[in-house]
User: Which sequence fits this backbone?
C-alpha cells in the first residue's frame, strides 16, 4: 500500500490527462485570477467574483479594457468593481489577449440559484432586456450585449443595481454601459433586480 | 506545611482546591496517536500559515508523511515580517519594501505581540528556540488625539488617565459623602470609601480633584515643586472619545502587560517551524479541488501551469474559508454553507521608516498613541531603543469604513493620508518619513481578508460544525477559533483538529488498520 501511495504521488503529474478536455490549466502569471474567481473561473460569491466561463471574447476584452482605463469600477461606492479595476490597471494588451483566450477556453458547472424571487415578474421586466440580450439571454455581438446565461444570479442582481444607481455605466467613454444604464430605468427597485436576475438564471 | 507533609502533588491539589491555580495547566501540544510500526500514514496540509505548520509538525512527530501545499510564494500566511527588498503581494498593487538594509528595521505586518497567557504559542517559542523580548504595548507618555475633543490638541495618556481617575474619584467621594451607600455600608465603611477615593484619585482633603502631579508637571520637576497641568473638565472628558477606545486598551486580557515579541521579527516563529519540519512546504501551489474519498482525501492543485493530483489519508485545510466556494469539492451543502458563512474581515496597517526616532526625544519608548482619525493608532517600537532610525506603525485599523477608505487609495495616497493624521500628534511627523509600506489584509493575495466575520446567527449554526471533520477533511486556522486574528487562535484550532483526529483513530481503529495493510 505504501509503495502504491508513493507511486501515486510520483505519477500525479500525469493526472492532467485524466481531468477532461474542458479543464484548462491556469497560464503562468495569471494565477491571481483564480484566487478570487475560483477553479476554472467558476466564480466565488464570498469574494463577489463572478463566474467568467461562458462569456464571449469580445465582451471580456471590452470589460478588461474598461477596468484598465478606469472606465468601469471607478465609482467610489463600487467596491468590488474598484477591486477589479486595480487588478486590471497594469495589464498589457498581450496579457489581456492571453486572459481572454484562456477564459473562453475554460468551462465550469453552471452556478446554482442563490436568489429566491418572483420569476414571473422577472419575465415581464425582461421583455425590455430581451431586445438586445435575446430571449434566451445568450447575448448579441452586433449590439454589444453580452451573454447573461450562466452568470451568477447574485452578480446579475448586483450589476443591475449598479446600473440603476449610477455606479456603472456613467463614464463618458462607456457607450455600451451608458446604453445599459439608460434601459435599466425599467428596474426601479432591488426587488425588480432580484426578479430579473432570478428569471435570467433559470433560462436554459 | 502541606507541601512538607504531602509532597508537591499534595500542595498542588490543595492549591487547586483553594482556587489558586488554573484548573488545567497547559502541558504542551496534542500528542497525535503514533503511526503503527512500519506504517507511514499521509496527510495533506493546505496552507502554510501557522495552523498548517503546527499541524504538520505534530503529525510528523507521530510518524506521518505530510505534504504542505502553499498557494503563495512564501510560507507564513498572515505572520509576515517585511524587511528591505521584500515583496508585499497586494492584489493589483504590489510593493517592494524599501526599508534600509539593517537588522533593526523590520515590520510585523500581521501578528505583532504575544501576551503571557498565550501558552500554546509560548510553548513553541520556548521549545523551538525563538528568542523573545518584552514589547511595550502601552506608554503613558504616548498621546490620544481627536479633532472633536479638547480643541483637537494631542493629550498625553498619563494626563488623561490621571484626570479621569481624579474626576471619577470625586464623584465617588461625593456619593459617599451624601450617604448614598448607607443601606449597604456602615459608617466606617463609608469613611473608608472616602479615603479610598481620595487616594485613588489624588483628591484634596474635602474631596475635590484639582489636578495631580501624577500626570506630570508643567515645570521641571527636579529643581522645582511639580506644577500639575490644569485638569480637564468632567464635561470635556465625557465629550472626548478616548475613554471608550484607547483608555482601556492596555487593560484588555490579550494586551495584559508585559507583552512579548520575537527578537528580530515575528516571522522567526514561522522560520522555527520550518527548521523543525522534515518536509518543506510546496510553494506556488494553488489548490483547485478537494474531494473526500472512502479512505482518504484527494486534492488537485496547480503548480507552474500544471495540474497535480495527490491523495492522502487525511487533509487539514488552512485555506481562508471564503476561498472554498471557488474550490471544487464534494462537501455536504451544510458544510459548504458553513464555510460560506465566514466573511472577509478588513484590517489595515501602515509602517513608515523614520530617519530619526523623534518620539524618543518626546519621552516615548514603545507603546501606542490613539487617534480618532482613520489611522486609529501609532505604535512606537520598543526594540533597538536609541538607534538612529526606526520603523513606526502609522496606522492600524480594523474598522471596516476606515479600512475600505484606505484600500481604495494608491500607495502614495495611503502614506500621505497617514502622515496628515500623524502630524496632529507629532508636528513635523512627515519630515521624518523616508519611505513606507501599507498592508490591507483584505486585498492581500491568497488572504483577501483577515479574521473571522460571521453573523451571530451563522455562528450559532455553523461554528461548532466547522470544528468537526467532514469525512477526513479538517478545517483549521484562526478562522475556526474564538480568537480570530491571533496566532494562539490558529494553534488552538490545530490542537482541536488533532484531538478530533485522535478520536477518529480511536473509534476507527480496525478500519484504519485494514487501510494500512491493504
Assistant:
Amino acid at each position: 500500500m505504501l509503495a502504491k501511495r508513493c507511486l501515486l504521488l510520483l505519477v500525479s503529474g500525469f493526472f492532467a490527462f485524466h481531468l477532461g478536455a474542458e479543464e484548462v490549466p491556469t497560464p503562468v502569471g495569471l494565477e491571481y485570477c483564480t484566487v478570487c474567481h475560483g477553479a476554472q473561473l467558476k466564480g466565488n460569491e464570498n469574494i463577489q467574483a463572478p463566474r467568467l466561463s461562458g462569456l464571449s471574447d469580445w465582451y471580456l476584452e471590452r470589460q478588461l479594457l474598461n477596468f484598465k482605463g478606469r472606465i468601469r469600477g471607478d465609482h467610489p461606492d463600487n467596491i468590488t468593481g474598484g477591486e477589479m479595476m486595480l487588478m486590471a490597471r497594469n495589464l498589457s494588451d498581450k496579457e489581456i489577449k492571453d486572459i481572454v483566450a484562456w477564459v473562453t477556453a475554460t468551462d465550469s458547472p453552471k452556478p446554482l440559484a442563490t436568489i429566491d424571487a418572483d420569476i414571473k415578474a422577472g419575465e415581464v421586466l425582461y421583455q425590455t432586456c430581451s431586445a438586445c440580450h435575446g430571449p434566451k439571454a445568450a447575448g448579441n455581438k452586433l449590439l454589444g450585449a453580452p451573454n447573461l446565461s450562466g452568470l451568477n444570479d447574485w452578480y446579475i442582481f448586483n450589476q443591475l443595481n449598479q446600473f440603476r444607481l449610477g455606479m456603472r455605466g456613467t463614464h463618458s467613454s462607456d457607450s455600451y454601459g451608458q446604453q445599459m444604464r439608460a434601459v435599466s430605468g425599467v428596474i426601479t427597485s432591488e426587488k425588480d433586480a432580484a426578479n430579473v436576475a432570478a428569471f435570467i438564471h433559470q433560462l436554459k | 506545611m502541606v507541601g512538607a507533609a504531602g509532597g508537591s502533588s499534595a500542595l498542588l491539589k490543595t492549591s487547586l482546591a483553594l482556587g489558586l491555580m488554573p484548573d488545567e495547566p497547559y502541558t504542551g501540544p496534542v500528542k497525535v496517536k503514533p503511526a503503527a510500526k512500519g506504517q507511514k500514514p499521509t496527510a495533506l496540509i493546505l496552507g502554510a500559515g501557522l495552523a498548517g505548520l503546527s499541524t504538520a509538525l505534530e503529525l510528523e512527530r507521530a510518524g506521518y508523511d505530510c505534504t504542505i501545499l502553499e498557494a503563495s510564494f512564501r510560507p507564513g500566511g498572515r505572520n509576515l515580517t517585511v524587511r528591505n527588498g521584500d515583496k508585499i503581494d497586494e492584489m493589483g498593487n504590489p510593493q517592494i519594501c524599501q526599508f534600509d538594509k539593517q537588522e533593526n528595521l523590520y515590520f510585523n505586518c500581521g501578528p505583532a505581540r504575544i501576551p503571557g497567557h498565550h501558552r500554546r504559542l509560548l510553548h513553541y517559542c520556548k521549545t523551538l528556540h525563538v528568542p523573545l523580548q518584552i514589547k511595550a504595548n502601552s506608554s503613558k507618555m504616548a498621546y490620544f488625539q481627536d479633532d472633536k475633543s479638547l480643541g483637537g490638541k494631542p493629550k498625553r495618556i498619563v494626563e488623561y488617565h490621571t484626570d479621569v481617575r481624579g474626576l471619577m474619584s470625586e464623584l465617588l467621594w461625593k456619593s459617599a459623602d451624601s450617604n448614598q451607600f448607607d443601606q449597604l455600608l456602615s459608617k466606617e465603611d463609608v469613611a473608608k470609601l472616602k479615603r479610598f477615593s481620595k487616594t485613588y484619585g489624588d483628591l484634596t482633603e474635602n474631596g475635590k480633584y484639582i489636578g495631580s502631579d501624577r500626570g506630570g508637571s508643567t515645570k521641571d520637576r527636579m529643581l522645582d515643586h511639580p506644577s500639575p497641568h490644569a485638569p480637564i473638565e468632567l464635561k470635556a472628558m465625557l465629550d472626548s472619545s478616548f475613554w471608550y477606545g484607547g483608555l482601556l486598551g492596555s487593560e484588555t486580557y490579550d494586551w495584559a502587560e508585559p507583552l512579548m515579541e520575537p527578537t528580530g521579527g515575528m516571522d522567526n516563529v514561522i522560520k522555527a517551524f520550518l527548521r523543525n519540519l522534515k518536509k518543506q512546504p510546496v510553494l506556488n501551489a494553488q489548490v483547485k479541488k478537494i474531494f473526500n474519498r472512502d479512505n482518504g482525501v484527494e486534492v488537485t492543485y496547480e503548480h507552474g501551469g500544471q495540474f497535480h493530483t495527490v491523495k492522502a489519508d487525511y487533509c487539514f485545510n488552512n485555506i481562508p474559508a471564503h476561498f472554498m466556494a471557488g474550490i471544487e469539492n464534494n462537501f455536504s451543502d451544510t458544510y459548504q454553507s458553513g464555510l460560506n458563512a465566514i466573511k472577509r474581515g478588513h484590517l489595515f496597517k501602515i509602517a513608515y521608516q523614520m530617519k530619526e526616532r523623534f518620539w524618543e526625544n518626546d519621552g516615548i519608548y514603545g507603546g501606542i498613541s490613539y487617534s480618532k482619525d482613520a489611522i486609529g493608532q501609532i505604535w512606537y517600537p520598543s526594540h533597538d531603543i536609541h538607534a538612529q532610525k526606526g520603523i513606526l506603525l502609522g496606522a492600524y485599523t480594523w474598522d471596516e469604513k476606515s479600512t475600505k477608505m484606505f484600500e481604495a487609495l494608491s500607495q502614495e495616497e495611503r502614506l500621505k493620508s497617514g502622515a496628515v493624521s500623524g502630524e496632529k500628534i507629532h508636528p513635523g511627523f512627515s519630515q521624518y518619513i523616508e519611505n513606507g509600506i501599507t498592508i490591507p489584509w483584505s486585498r492581500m493575495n491568497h488572504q483577501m481578508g483577515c479574521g473571522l466575520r460571521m453573523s451571530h446567527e451563522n455562528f450559532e449554526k455553523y461554528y461548532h460544525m466547522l470544528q468537526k471533520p467532514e469525512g477526513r477533511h479538517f478545517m483549521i486556522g484562526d478562522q475556526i477559533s474564538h480568537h480570530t486574528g491571533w496566532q494562539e487562535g490558529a494553534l488552538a484550532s490545530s490542537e482541536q483538529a488533532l484531538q478530533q483526529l485522535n478520536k477518529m483513530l480511536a473509534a476507527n481503529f480496525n478500519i484504519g488498520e485494514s487501510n494500512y495493510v491493504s
Summary: The interface with chain B takes residues 1-2, 5, 8-9, 12-13, 15-16, 19, 23, 25-28, 31-32, 34-40, 42-47, 49, 76, 79, 82-83, 86-90 of chain A (CB under 8 Å). Residues 1-21 of chain A have pLDDT under 50 and may be disordered. The CA atoms of residues 31 and 136 of chain A lie 33 Å apart. The longest helix of chain A spans residues 119-133.
